[in-house]
Amino acid sequence: GNAKVWLVLAVIFNLLILFIFKYLNFAISNIDRIFGDIIPQTNIVLPIGISFFTFQAMSYVVDVYRGTVRVQKNPFYVALYISFFPQLIAGPIVRYSTIEKQIKERYVTFDDFSEGVRRFLIGLSKKVILANNFAVIADQAFATSDGGNLSVAFAWLGSIAYSLQIFFDFSAYSDMAIGLGRMFGFHFLENFDYPYISRSASEFWRRWHISLGVWFRDYVYIPLGGSRVKNKALLVRNLFVVWLLTGVWHGANWTFIFWGLGYFILITVEKVFDIPGRFKNSFARIAYGVFTFLCVNTGWVLFRADSISQAGNYLKAMIGLNGNGLLDNLATQYFCENWIFFIVGILYSVRLFKYMRERIEDNRKLVGKIEWLGMFVYLSLFVLSVSYLVMGAYNPFIYFNF
């Protein structure tokens, strides 16, 4: 009765805030395009991280309604949860159940604090050293594309640079948030699990921005019936709703909507025809994994582009349909200047450094011998990161827009 009314009102209130600040101008521009300039654009400024804190607020209300968490009677505790500064700006989306007990009772140990510092330094160096350098290449490639002079090689170099930029940019924010939280005694769930080694689009989204995928699964996909629906038409409908909303969540632009619908097509085909399950030999699985990465990389071009037409021009340049050359001086110059970043970025993306760290930790004798080396590495990363910041290196923020 009353509980359901309050739930609906709370969800509508949060969605209304999101719509007014994030989507109103987009809606007005589309109305104006159809009917002429009948409504002026507003001067509303997008608050930083609005998609993250509104989704957290909605998840709290829904979980209380479902009875999976208890009502928090102290409004300051609820405010702390929704506006918790380490992850307020760029996620991950933290569920109230994850930190319900930690808000009242938590213990900050030396091990927790030092692990938090280590994790924060990893995030800082991923953002400042890797993501920012990939950003320079990606931005140059997209700017060159606008001029119509983008070679095939530079188009691919730019798209792979952006794939690495967005991964190191966003996973860096999550690392820093998890690390800062750990310093204060909060244990957040992981948000990335080496997504570029995925063998299917479905697996990619189990590894990429995990907190968003889980949010849509628990609050949209499963309530609609999930995968356990009676017929495939309902499954397709459920997937369509989730991926349309996933696209819309990322931004008020048709590029994001089409990007989300691209994943809808890929994942629907995978689920309806059980594609990854059909591959019995490892060669077929690896080949489909390569195909998956090419789809993801193509998707990021759409994600990065300012408009559908810009994305179309860029994708045409990648396959040489713009009358463009195969290789140019820009591609050679940017690759020669940045090859070391590409090698480090790719090796990190395929889990090599994590594998090496786990092997070292498994060998107790080795741990004692090279503990000082680890401290030296993290200190060096910190000094290098600060040096880049002091030098005023290019420092764009992708996920602050969401």
Rg over CA atoms: 23 Å
Output the structural class.
mainly alpha
Give the rounded overall mean pLDDT: 90
Low-confidence stretches: none
> Could you spell the SSE succession in H and E letters?
HHHHHHHHHHHHHHHHH
Work out the helicity level. over 70%
Quickly count the helices. 17
Strand content: under 5%
The termini sit apart by: 34 Å
Q: Give a quick account of the main beta sheet: strands, pairing sense, barrel closure.
A: none
**Strand element count:** 0
Overall body shape: globular
Summarize the structure in short:
The chain has 402 residues and is mainly alpha-helical.
What does this structure look like?
Helix 7 packs across helix 13 and helix 11 (254-273) runs antiparallel to helix 13 (282-304). 31% of the residues are buried. The protein is mainly α. It has helices at 2-35, 50-66, 75-82, 85-88, 96-104, 110-147, 152-183, 201-207, 210-224, 232-250, 254-273, 275-278, 282-304, 308-318, 329-349, 352-362, 364-390. Helices cover 75% and strands 0% of the residues. It is built from 17 helices and no strands.
